[in-house]
Amino acid sequence: MQTTSTHASSASWQTQRGLYDSYCSLAREFVIEMQPCAALETGTGAAEDIIAAREWLAEMDQRIQIHQLRQFIQTSALVNEEVLRALLLHHLQKEHKTDHDRDKVDFVLVQLFSQLIPANFSDADLSLPAVAKALEPVLGQISLTETEWLKSLDDLLAKANAAKNLNSLFTGRIIEAGRDIKASCGDKFFEPEALAAFARFGFLIRRAFFRLMHQDLNAILDGLRELESRGVNTLDCRKAQFAADEPIARLRMICQSWKVMFHAEYSSGQPLCLLVDLRTAVESALLRNDRLGGASVKGKASAASATAGRAPEFEVSGTSAAWDADPGQDPEPSGK
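^ thats the sequence. predicted structure below, dont judge the formating
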């Protein structure tokens, strides 16, 4: 018994030490006031060191907001699979878990899961048993049972996959419904079966989001090219919070930058609302131009020639390869 206790204490100490550098780096990045932890800097892992370290980490957890943790994990060179495992273990081992702990566990687990599976896994490969098997090294053996809330997650995934664009994804409130299910689980959210189910849900929702985001960006860029071929140089984009005579060249540059900005975000925050509104503005301009007879035969031929054989600006596939190739990026924008 003493050996088991000593081993557990040693594992806890190593987890705490592993998180210390990451928390200090995050605090510097976001200018979070903190005092160094002497126990973690010079301690030996004695019982009093572990207690002091636990208290320091708990205080930091209260100060670190979920959007800060997301951004740090997405951008820091310090974050790897080992750090993600330590973060996950740290939050799961808490005796009393808050809603913030749930959000952090939810985010970190999907990040970690994305590194545990082959990048070429299709949606069909990601059944719940397959996800549970992939997470066993992290969560231990997972027993799966049929529950109503698991069926609800599958229903939401079906709706997400049926969405034609980001607007339909957002107006369907699919992501919000997923959050409501997580919140309704209470402490059961932290049980292995629920964690596996929500890791699968979060991963597949991201894939659907990035597929639709790329489609929307491609539709906007194609529409801008078509308008330029018709001699249109500016666009009334007030609905999307741009100018009434926004230069098309500038809109194209903005779309290119959005591809990077939105790489990590999948809820309907303000920037993504602008993307949805900009697609609406471009499509409305094309319709108005058609009604006014602005699309000459020459213009249409020119646009067709420019588009023929051209690969999309942003590759769209069923597996969202752009995100899978860089799973350090996660959705949830606007600081939620």
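The beta strands are 234-235, 246-247.
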